[in-house]
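Record format v2
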Amino acid sequence: KNQVEQSPQSLIILEGKNCTLQCNYTVSPFSNLRWYKQDTGRGPVSLTIMTFSENTKSNGRYTATLDADTKQSSLHITASQLSDSASYICVVSFGYSSASKIIFGSGTRLSIRP
Amino acid sequence: SQTIHQWPATLVQPVGSPLSLECTVEGTSNPNLYWYRQAAGRGLQLLFYSVGIGQISSEVPQNLSASRPQDRQFILSSKKLLLSDSGFYLCAWSSLGFGVTDTQYFGPGTRLTVL
């Protein structure tokens, strides 16, 4: 069964601390994995995109990793800020180009406390 | 630069009433267009996508339909709303399809409440 699971479901950390969010997937054939940030009541905004051959990608204080062998990805946030409070969504694309599919994880809700 | 618009921003409709949500994209040509629904506390669910005018693919059977009358216009409709249609509806566009390394850009969303 093709699925994407994220953990934890929610997370509260203090401002300035680091955190890591997890995404495990079981899809085949894998195409790419994306992390999105979604502020409450807004549309998601792309943070990173990684293909099979990429194992790390950074976007400012956000660093995503991908282990295609274990089918796991993580999103590491460094020196968290209050504006990082949002839901973080892992999205996996799979399938062949003529029949590509996409699955969204249910997200991790991150709250940064001052 | 490209921008994506959705309206209305919020909508409250009675059960059994019709629905029309509109999405338009500016600053690009021949975009792929998508409609998603996000139920409270749940992940995004792809409803429809379109690779061109008049070309609509449905991902899940449902009470909704989509149309693309113009290159940069995508409409989500229903003849009779159900309570289960409540949710946050997001439109998105991309230059390429899902399976290639391309970003989807999301609109601001429409919050639909069916009573």
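Chain A has a mean pLDDT of 93.
The interface with chain B takes residues 31-32, 34, 41-46, 49, 51, 89, 93-97, 100-102, 104-107 of chain A (CB under 8 Å).
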